[in-house]
Design brief:
single chain; alpha/beta; TIM Barrel; three-stranded parallel β-sheet; globular; Metal_Hydrolase; ACMSD; lyase; Amidohydro-rel
């Protein structure tokens, strides 16, 4: 298979909510009460709600992607239009040869650990719903099947989160984001029954639970103080992913909810062989510990419930059989610095070829596995969705 023949589906990209998202999508009764952009004393423009600083649009990241715009609303000048405008995003996806993508918010403003600090919890929940409506109406509707909506949840309130799952599922959403280590974010852990109503709703509506780091989840393993390199959260995402996966597997969640599907959206795949070896060994050697995975090994649980995505992982692809070739997905991570736009196709194709992957494996890992997991049907015209066709304008 030539790179131009692949149909790429990115399991995890990034976006920035537009400046008008809340003015456009909050109910009329909450007009003027939603998050607003305001400057900090140092001039940085941030989202604020109820007196809580929710962080800057784009989280202050240095994006690697199309050239940034020189003008825009406060806080948005210097951000490329492809970050928040779906038409511009589609142009960038075409240039990179990417057919479809699930996109996570870059701003930490709308994670459970920050919004729950706002005194008015009902207002915070309404803000989450407004964001989700924009994901459906303002983002996904621009290109159904290509821009795949991802909903957030008001995780500080289980009943509100369940209601939001039901609401967004009715709107056609197939995936929801959730903190990968809720107990570190001062929320109950998966080993409790606190999340059972939510997980039951996620299963009942056949949604994917997409785990992602959320503040302050990365802080316990962020490295020594005053070490600017060790404290970069990007460097510890594999460790966080391994910890979150272990937490879920040993918590009994998958015995209680056999239909639960979980996407490990950051951290790559290099940690998986080690973790599976370790869990399987623990089950054999420490029988006295009483770890019960419903008669399954850790490997079987992982391969039946998880999807894990990578940007570039050349060494780990040699171990794809140990991981499970059906549970590996590719991600462009557009437009983060670690992303590979616009040469993603050539880079991932080269890594897979070097690892000896067959054409069916290349097709599955670069697109088919994610499309199946997120319940996104195949393109109506595969030939028009290939890397070559998208780059040539169809």
């Amino acid at each position: 298979m030539h790179p131009s023949e692949m149909v790429l589906f990115s399991a995890a990209d990034l976006l920035v909510e537009p400046a008008t998202v809340f003015a456009d999508h909050l109910p009329a009764g909450l007009a003027g009460r939603g998050p607003r952009l305001a400057p900090r004393p140092d001039g940085t423009v941030v989202w604020t709600l109820g007196g809580v600083d929710l962080g800057a649009p784009g989280a202050g990241l240095r994006f690697a992607g199309p050239a940034p715009e020189t003008e825009g609303p406060p806080g948005y000048a210097g951000l490329a239009a492809a970050l928040h405008d779906p038409v511009a995003r589609l142009r960038a996806m075409d240039a990179g040869g990417v057919h479809a993508a699930v996109s996570f918010p870059t701003s930490r403003a709308f994670t459970a650990s920050l919004l729950r600090r706002v005194p008015d919890r009902a207002l915070s929940a309404a803000v989450v719903s407004a964001y989700n409506d924009w994901q459906v109406d303002g983002w996904g509707a621009a290109a159904p099947g290509r821009l795949v909506p991802l909903a957030l949840l008001p995780a500080w309130d289980v009943e509100a989160a369940v209601a939001e799952v039901v609401r967004v599922a009715a709107r056609g959403v197939t995936a929801v984001a959730f903190p990968e280590l809720p107990h570190v974010a001062d929320l109950p852990g998966f080993a409790t029954d606190h999340w059972d109503r939510l997980l039951r709703a996620v299963c009942d509506h056949d949604l994917v639970l997409c785990l992602q780091p959320a503040p302050p989840a990365e802080e316990p393993v962020a490295g020594a103080p005053f070490n600017p390199f060790a404290s970069q959260s990007d460097l510890v995402t594999p460790q966080l992913a391994a910890a979150a996966c272990t937490d879920l597997i040993v918590s009994g969640v998958f015995s209680r909810f056999p239909g639960l599907r979980v996407a490990m959206s950051q951290g790559g795949i290099g940690w998986i062989p080690f973790l599976l070896d370790r869990i399987d060994l623990h089950q054999r050697n420490q029988v006295w510990s009483g770890l019960d995975l419903g008669g399954r090994t850790g490997t079987e649980v992982f391969q039946q419930h998880f999807l894990s995505s990578f940007v570039t992982d050349p060494s780990s692809l040699y171990l794809r059989e140990r991981i499970g070739p059906d549970v590996i997905a590719w991600q462009a991570a557009f437009p983060a610095p670690e992303g590979t736009w616009p040469r993603s196709a050539e880079l991932v194709h080269g890594e897979l070829l070097a690892a000896g992957a067959t054409d069916p494996e290349i097709d599955a890992i670069t697109g088919g596995n994610a499309a199946r997991f997120f319940r996104v049907g195949p393109p109506a015209d595969r030939a028009a969705a290939t890397v070559g066709a998208l780059r040539s304008g169809g």
